[in-house]
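WARN retry 2 of 3 for item q-0093 after timeout on previous attempt; input resubmitted unchanged.
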Amino acid sequence: MAPTLQQCPVCFNHYRSTPDGKLCRHGGKVKGQECSGSRKKVDPSGARAASPLGAAPDPRPGLPTRSSAASVSGDPLGLDYSGVFDKLTAVLKCVPVYDHIPKPCREKFAHDLNALLTAVCNDPGDPAHWVRLHCFVPYVLQKTSRGGRRVNQGNLVNKRLSEYSTIGLETLVLCFDGFNNGKSQKHNPDRWINAVSSCIEQGNLSSAVRLICSPEGLAESSPATFDKLCSIHPKIPVDRRVFPALTPTAGCVSSAEVLRAVKSFKNGSSGGLDGLRPQHLKDVFSGPLPIDDTLNSLTQFINLILSGACPLSVRRRPDGCTLIPWRAGRCLAWDVTVPGTLAERYVNLTSKECGLAAARAADEKMKKYGTALPSMEFLPICIEVLGPMDPNTLKFLKEIGKRISVRSVANGDRLNQINSVDNTLDKSFDNFKQQMNESWTDIVKQGIDAVKNDVKVVQRTLEVLNTIKERENNVIIFNLIESNRKDNDSVSAILRSLTDNSIKDDDILRVTRQGRKIDDSKTPRPVIVKFASFVIKNRVMRSISKIKSLEGEFNKIKISHDLTHDHRVELRELIVEAKTKEANDGHFLYRVRGQVGRWKIVKLKKTAII
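OK item q-0093 returned
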């Protein structure tokens, strides 16, 4: 009888199981690369729908599953949705998802997303619809764990889309139990490299360049880093007054505005807590696929959020923020940016005039979001790290102070405080300008000195390389007796004898004695011979073993390369090291071999030396 096969909940392939109900080892052939579902127990009945997320088994497998997204209006499970949303908010941000939707899945992904948005808009009071919309992207586009058998992304995502509507709510929530961000993450020195690679893969080249040019890299996840960030940002005043309750006015957007806002996001833009990123929507809305239904559903959903007609338990989801009404009859949307005054991209501006970094950041925000939602009043709030503000920000803060003072009884002290702050800021700006002028001169001087040092190092390196290049075709002859005979004739005779008369007079460019001649000296001066090419020099160096066979006074000479001082020191150290090893080892010989500047010690048997 054929053995019973069980389906792995991770890779969805069928394998044999051990007598105790665990799956056999499968996946990679190398130990440590096997599938994460190996050696794990599975449900033998096979009644539970397998989850592509490798989730825990359904503790209540007898419950009926939902056949479609539209059939979840009832609540037979009696889930505590407030606790469910709190759990999903903390867990889903830890689920890794694909950066792009595979092309074979985009049409089906858009169809299912349209169905979920339509279900939420038709019945916004049912939290079950919000749960399915909240979990849709993390479930369908979750990255598989590393190791095990390779899977096709398109087939895997299509399979998850097909089974998503058949999974019960409780099983769906349990699928994400394995993702817990409560554990402290150790500092990984490769996080910087991984972040740069991720930005390049997402097409966000500007962020990748900023990370590469940053001298400090990514900050370590530690309490000290958190305390430093808290010290940079100003604390909330204890006596801050609450905004007066005004009658909110719901905003309304059109399909064209939504499409223009989606396409305005740059590559690599981050998404919300539910895992949906702007790039996913750009994938859905790009190409020849029909987008009218999905775009209309998304527009209807956004207008639903702006109107506030959603359950209290999900009112802070999925965007995680609230809208503040303003007296202009439109909602006020602001974006807070804290640019670094001394950052590389702003230092050329702040060195000229105080506050230009905040002004530049405000201009960039206005270009990005100023016309994205005409139904809202957008205001960029830009405050530099060292204090200077954008003029519109300062005007906005003063306007808030005036509006509060109108509704406040004791407004005299507040206005005095604001004026005092303005005076303090003016003095701080003046002091900052003076300090910047003084420190900038020192910084430029230090930079010039550093550049000069680098130039000297480069010049030294070039000189060394030129010296090596000049000596490349040279050899040095030692112990050649100085006589009335010309050195050219002696050298030519020696080289012809060594190379069997294959060297001609034209191959020898120059023959010179090294050093000043001393009459009483018994040691002859070395002779430097320069050849026409490296090939001729190499031919001579291969024939130096024939020196002992030369006649007369020529059999005592020695020929070597024309080495620089650094090369001579290096060769001398290697020879001493080889002699030391040979003295300690009685069975082998140690010799220095290799090209000039690339020597190494080789180990030879004594019997191999003739």
